[in-house]
């Protein structure tokens, strides 16, 4: 009897010991998620000072900003070469140099050095996250939504971070007791995720991957801007006016704009010439002038803001635009400037060589390593209207085609042709045609693992998280197995929610479909008055010292 009692007690104690272990094991069955965000985190240097990067709020007027005389002097210094050399003699080099000289002091820390390194030592975040998972942590716990957020200096080359990211993933696996993580990247974070998978994907530590609005396949805006592919179209600019007004009303981000005052000058100039029905030849001359101005302006702005030296922005320049972009921003091969920046350019070309020059091979490597990947993209907005391909379906920063690695789309405001759709249906691919008839996902890299959201700006993400988490926590999930969202969805800015797209709820925004009326005597006169009112208003504000030059540049 004693033996039986002893055996019973032993089994009871063994069960008591095993029960918590089983409980912990069950909790650990959920795949840990490592999240890589894009740019936007505040950057701090080792001494704790803030690095003022481009597009951060910058006061250029008032008590804490520049005085009136300094602002006027800045404008005059920029306008002199524009008027005296550019307009009169078609010489624009000094104009671009003047812009750089005047604006660079406003962003002293944003750029990197000639080798693509921070100018004040290693750029870090205030909380580097290197120790975000404490060594003493023994219990398995999730961050918000079950994700561990990897922090990094988003200006640097993605390959500057991959080894530290790998160590971070090993920490996550150690703490959670798992042997794989799932990974999720947004925007510029996609370049870092791509670099990591290119170097470490063969270790098979990654189970699922979602690329959401990522730019490793190209951002139309940055690829065309860096390579100087500037275009001006009155209709495109008119649509962009409606987009800016709409996003301003919603309080959402407008994306990368070129300022209210500069926008007004360009838009109303083009509108004026369109309304007064000038000859094609005259209009072409205006467009040529803007194109020359843009090619002088773009490299100057990129260097002044620091973007020219931030390697991660260069990952968004596609392979075919890269050579032209390097020539425009750094000069031709063998020139003094090009040689000076050799270290930085080598980092740019390293990413090109290992990822972007052959994206087909990159995604094939993921499949070879059993990494289950998918894409999420948004559209319904347009890119900045001063660059080529501004009419591609976009989330205002990256086109749907590039986010999905190959989806076929109609130009903004149009539909795919009936013949094209009929051909896809005959091939048995009709289910990949969006209800709005603007998108065909059958040509995307992985049609069965691609979700799209219409009428959503680049900043929209919360409503898509249920799809993201279900995909990342699942096993070989597809559009047929994920239940938290449809392949084709529509965003509602009133409720901030996403719903399944139907033929009844998929209309474009009004400012996209708004017709451009034929000029009449009345509209020509109105355009004339708007144009000159804008010019006189600009001059008056200039001499009163009321211009906010952060809006112009």
Can you walk through the features of this model?
The N and C termini lie far apart (90 Å). The protein has 553 residues and is an alpha/beta fold. Helix 8 packs antiparallel against helix 19. The strands form three sheets. Strands 5-1-6-7-8-11-12-13 form an eight-stranded mixed beta sheet, sandwiched between helices. A three-stranded antiparallel beta sheet has the order 3-2-4, with no helix packed on it. Strands 9-10 form a two-stranded antiparallel ribbon. The N terminus and C terminus are likely disordered. Strand 2 and strand 3 form a beta hairpin. Helices cover 45% and strands 9% of the residues.
Helices and strands, with pairings:
Blueprint: H1 2-27, E1 33-36, E2 43-44, E3 50-51, H2 68-89, H3 93-103, E4 124-125, E5 147-149, H4 162-176, E6 181-186, H5 189-200, E7 206-212, H6 220-226, H7 234-250, H8 260-275, H9 280-305, H10 311-314, H11 319-330, H12 336-340, H13 342-354, H14 359-368, E8 372-379, H15 400-403, E9 408-409, H16 418-426, E10 439-440, E11 450-454, H17 465-473, E12 488-492, E13 497-500, H18 510-513, H19 521-544, H20 549-552
Parallel strand pairs: 1-5, 1-6, 6-7, 7-8, 8-11, 11-12
Antiparallel strand pairs: 2-3, 2-4, 9-10, 12-13
Helix pairs in contact: 2-3, 3-9, 4-5, 6-11, 7-8, 8-19
């Amino acid at each position: 009897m004693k033996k039986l009692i002893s055996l019973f007690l032993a089994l009871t104690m063994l069960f008591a010991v095993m029960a918590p272990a089983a409980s912990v094991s069950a909790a650990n069955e959920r795949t840990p998620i490592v999240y890589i965000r894009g740019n936007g985190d505040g950057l701090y240097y080792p001494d704790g000072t803030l690095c003022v990067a481009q597009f951060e709020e910058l006061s250029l007027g008032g008590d804490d900003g520049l005085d009136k005389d300094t602002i006027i002097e800045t404008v005059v210094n920029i306008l002199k070469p524009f008027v005296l050399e550019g307009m009169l003699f078609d010489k624009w080099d000094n104009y671009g140099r003047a812009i750089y000289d005047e604006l660079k002091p406003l962003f002293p820390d944003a750029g990197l050095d000639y080798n693509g390194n921070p100018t004040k030592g290693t750029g870090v975040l205030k909380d580097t996250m290197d120790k975000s998972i404490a060594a003493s942590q023994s219990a398995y716990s999730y961050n918000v939504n079950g994700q561990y957020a990897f922090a990094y200096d988003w200006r640097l080359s993605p390959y500057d971070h991959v080894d530290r990211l790998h160590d971070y993933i090993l920490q996550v696996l150690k703490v959670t007791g798992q042997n794989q993580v799932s990974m999720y990247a947004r925007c510029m974070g996609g370049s870092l995720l791509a670099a990591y998978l290119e170097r470490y994907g063969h270790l098979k530590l990654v189970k699922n991957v979602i690329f959401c609005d990522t730019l490793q396949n190209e951002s139309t805006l940055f690829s065309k801007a860096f390579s100087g592919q500037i275009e001006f179209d009155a209709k495109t600019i008119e649509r962009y006016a409606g987009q800016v007004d709409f996003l301003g009303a919603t309080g959402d981000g407008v994306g990368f704009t070129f300022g209210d005052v500069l926008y007004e000058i360009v838009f109303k100039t083009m509108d004026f010439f369109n309304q007064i029905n000038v000859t094609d030849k005259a209009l072409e001359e205006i467009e040529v002038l803007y194109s020359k101005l843009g090619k002088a302006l773009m490299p100057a702005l990129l260097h002044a803001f620091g973007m020219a030296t931030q390697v991660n922005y260069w990952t968004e320049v596609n392979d075919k635009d890269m050579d032209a972009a390097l020539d425009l921003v750094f000069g031709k091969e063998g020139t003094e400037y090009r040689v000076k920046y050799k270290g930085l350019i080598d980092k740019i070309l390293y990413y090109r060589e290992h990822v972007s020059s052959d994206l087909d091979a990159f995604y094939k490597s993921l499949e070879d390593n059993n990494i289950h990947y998918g894409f999420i993209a948004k559209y319904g907005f347009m890119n900045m209207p001063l660059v080529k391909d501004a009419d591609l379906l976009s989330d205002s920063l990256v086109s749907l085609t590039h986010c999905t690695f190959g989806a076929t789309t109609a130009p903004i405001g149009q539909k795919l042709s009936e013949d094209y759709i009929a051909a896809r249906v005959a091939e048995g691919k009709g289910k990949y045609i969006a209800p709005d008839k603007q998108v065909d996902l059958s040509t995307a890299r992985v049609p069965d693992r691609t979700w799209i959201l219409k009428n959503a700006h680049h900043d929209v993400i919360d409503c898509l998280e249920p799809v993201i988490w279900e995909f990342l926590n699942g096993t070989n999930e597809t559009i047929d197995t994920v239940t938290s969202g449809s392949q084709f969805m529509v965003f509602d800015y009133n409720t901030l929610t996403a719903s399944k797209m139907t033929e009844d709820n998929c209309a474009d925004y009004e400012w996209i479909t708004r017709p451009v009326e034929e000029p009449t005597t009345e509209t020509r006169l109105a355009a004339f008055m708007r144009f000159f009112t804008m010019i006189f208003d600009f001059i008056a504000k200039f001499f009163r010292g009321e211009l906010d030059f952060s809006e112009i540049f």
